[in-house]
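ingest -> validate -> predict -> emit
validate: passed (alphabet ok, no gaps, 327 aa)
predict: started
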Amino acid sequence: MAEPEGLLDIDNLSVSFRTPRGDLQALRNVSLKMGKGEIVGVIGESGCGKSTLINSIIGLLPANTCALSGHIRFAGEDIVGMADRDLRRLRGERITTIFQDPMTALNPVLSIGTQMTAIQYRRNSSPREKQRRTVEFLEKVRMPDAEKRLGQYPHQFSGGMRQRICIAMALLTEPDLLIADEPTTALDATLEVQVIRLLRELQRDIGCSVLFISHHLGAVAELCERVAIMYAGEVVEQGSVRDIFRDPRHPYTRKLLECDPGRILELRAVMPTIGGDLPDLVHIPKGCIFRERCPDRFERCSERPPVETIRAGHRAACHKARELANP
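emit:
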């Protein structure tokens, strides 16, 4: 099968922030590629760098960013070092984002219709046409009585409905890339399944690529085609969903899967966890970044591990990557 045409190419991206304790190295040599129309998941614990990765792509890094290197090529254009004017041209039109908390993403003092009409300011069309498109996209996300809802405010909707509104707003511009930043975290299990299926259907209709950020393994397995595993600012493993979930080759990936409630078949009083703490990103330890928490560590782990290619498209940064095959 031919590979999808390239859309996003992140190459050796590193980002550091200035703090009172020293420079915090939030991302280090992150590389990730996405094709047009592809859905790629990014998984990791809190603090692994997922949010920094998103903010780097959309050009919204904080003022204390002290170092940014590498490349983020979007449709052939390098976002790193791009002028603010050009970034604004991409944001909200070709790249859109669904944020984790829909209540904070929506303006509480403006009606839904006003907000969804306002974000179409780049379209050279009449107010009536913009309203028609607003209703159309609310209906796409299965909003009941969409036209009657235009005058309502965010607090008048449930959490699941607010998230549907945010999805509709993100897709109104028919972007090339949709970044979904843990869009199901605030929802209960039933609504989460509905939102995942809705995202997949809308992605097929519009044809955009989706970068799905999550810590929920089941959601990623349900929605994504490929997945990257992040730990402490690095991509430690990436490959197809099938390869990562059936034959993980990095110890961190294996421990994450062991902690997934969906894989626990026996009743337990205590849920499994990954022992230890994330490393100090101001003082990066030498060698493998996961060494202190790794059950498979040995002498060579004091050296920086190479990125081993297990099979086409499946890579892991571990000295034992070729040995850790599932029986």
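The two ends are 28 Å apart (CA to CA).
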